[in-house]
Amino acid sequence: APIIVWFRTDLRLADNPALTAAAQASADTGAAVIPLYILEEETGGTAGTSPAGTSTWPLGGAQRWWLHGSLERLGTCCARHGSPLLLRRGEPGAVLDALIAETGAGCVLWNRRYTPAGTARDAAIKQGLKARGIDARSFNAALLAEPWTVRNKSGGSFKVFTPFWRHVSSTLNPPLPTRAPATLKAPQTAPAGDRLADWGLLPTRPDWAAGLRRRWVPGETAALSHLAEFLDGPVGAYATERDRPDRAGTSALSPYLAFGEIGPRQIWHAARHAADARPELAAGIEAFLREVGWREFQYHLLHHAPDLPDRPLDSRFTGFAWRDDPAGLRAWQRGRTGYPIVDAGMRQLWETGWMHNRVRMIVASFLIKDLLLPWQEGERWFWDTLVDADLAQNAGNWQWVAGCGADAAPFFRVFNPVLQGEKFDPAGDYVRRYVPELGRLPARWIHQPWAAPAEVLRQAGVRLGDSYPRPILDHGAARERALALYKELKEGV
Ligand code: FAD
């Protein structure tokens, strides 16, 4: 009887325990392997939804674009290995039942997902399959350690990152990643599936994905070469360069991780190997793995707090007096706040589907603390525009900046967009790349064009309020307003 391998956010052939188990069983018994991907958007998205009573998170626009490219490549790889990828859409339990009835499959294998709705749905499906005598089994391909296995000394879950990572990184011994199976035996009659092009994952009109196409090549092959190139040298300077949006100092692996085109265990082993081979890279590698540890931490948090995407972990923030300001929100989304580093970040996001981590923190602080808009608004916009949108990372990081999450930055730490720009984009190259209308401003003024002498602006061809917006608010005053509100919150007024 054939074995179904149900792909979800593990779109790779190497280090894929479900696929490895299927290939092994196939070699032992001669069973065929049917690789399957189900588009679940009608039921709330493959990326995961929140539990009943909270909002749903269907795939965002940028993710849909990435998914198309990723499935195209996975399809090519599966076909090359012998068994084509089958595409179906609908409620996954029903899709699986139909496929089992058609093919006589006796076994369904998958790698676990860790979003609350995904976990709940998978548990129900597994139970249903087992009740009908189908061998249904799941594996871990997405995390270094299963969330339920990591406990602090008193038996609870970690709420603070540093002890979490100290514990995990010192006790961890993740299995070595497996290679892609040499061959996959196809069923004698191939079940009929959808055509990827008919899923409408790509934007039509307007075609906003040109910048994404220029910036990214989805898929497992690209993921592995990104990692290899990064570990080959750039990682050595990671500890300092990672905060510089004007340089390519980070790995850019996040979208590949979000879709499981690469797994953290592959990163872990490759990085450890590189550190052993080249001790001069070791400090950079430690810093890099620590960030991979943050990814892990956010997943563990989401596991223990399933409404993390919707509600502040710190319940004091539940009734916070957020403002309602559609014009301010729109200026932020479009990169037209008049604060160059904020605008550069938001435009990088729109153009490329990605934003540098330092700038994510700056723009998030601006939305939450300067504009006093709810962090959930920013979370939603990021969800739709990021190619690496990931329920746990997005929610955990927004809550972190807002000061209402686990181990969060304190609310009273308000980023100053001018000082942040001057510190982390000192020559203004990052701003110039994404805000070309300021391109000819000297570095001294590029992070605060409103302060530049009229003559400087004229020479640079900048007409404030016309070619580039004046600041939509005064940062100093906005900061005072935020701090006053925070004080009320703390005092429980
Ligand atoms: P590198 O610096 O090369 O780091 C390697 C890997 O470590 C990353 O790919 C990522 O998996 C992990 N990592 C790095 N920084 C963080 C972090 N702060 N938190 C958790 N994991 C981290 N990341 C997402 O993957 N998806 C999101 O939806 C997302 N939303 C965010 C929202 C906000 C408001 C903020 C401040 C950060 C968010 N991040 C998110 C985290 C971080 O910005 C990105 O993971 C990082 O910029 C990706 O670039 P990179 O792969 O070059 O990172």
From TrEMBL:
Residues 1-144 form the Photolyase/cryptochrome alpha/beta domain. Its cofactor is (6R)-5,10-methylene-5,6,7,8-tetrahydrofolate; FAD. InterPro entries: Crypto/Photolyase_FAD-like_sf (IPR036134), Crypto/Photolyase_N_sf (IPR036155), Cryptochr/Photolyase_FAD-bd (IPR005101), Cryptochrome/DNA_photolyase_1 (IPR002081), DNA_photolyase_1_CS_C (IPR018394), DNA_photolyase_N (IPR006050), Rossmann-like_a/b/a_fold (IPR014729). It is an enzyme of class 4 (lyase). Coiled coil: none annotated. It comes from Azospirillum thiophilum. It catalyses: cyclobutadipyrimidine (in DNA) = 2 pyrimidine residues (in DNA). Keywords: Chromophore, FAD, Flavoprotein. GO terms for biological process: photoreactive repair; response to light stimulus. This is Deoxyribodipyrimidine photo-lyase. Its EC number is 4.1.99.3.
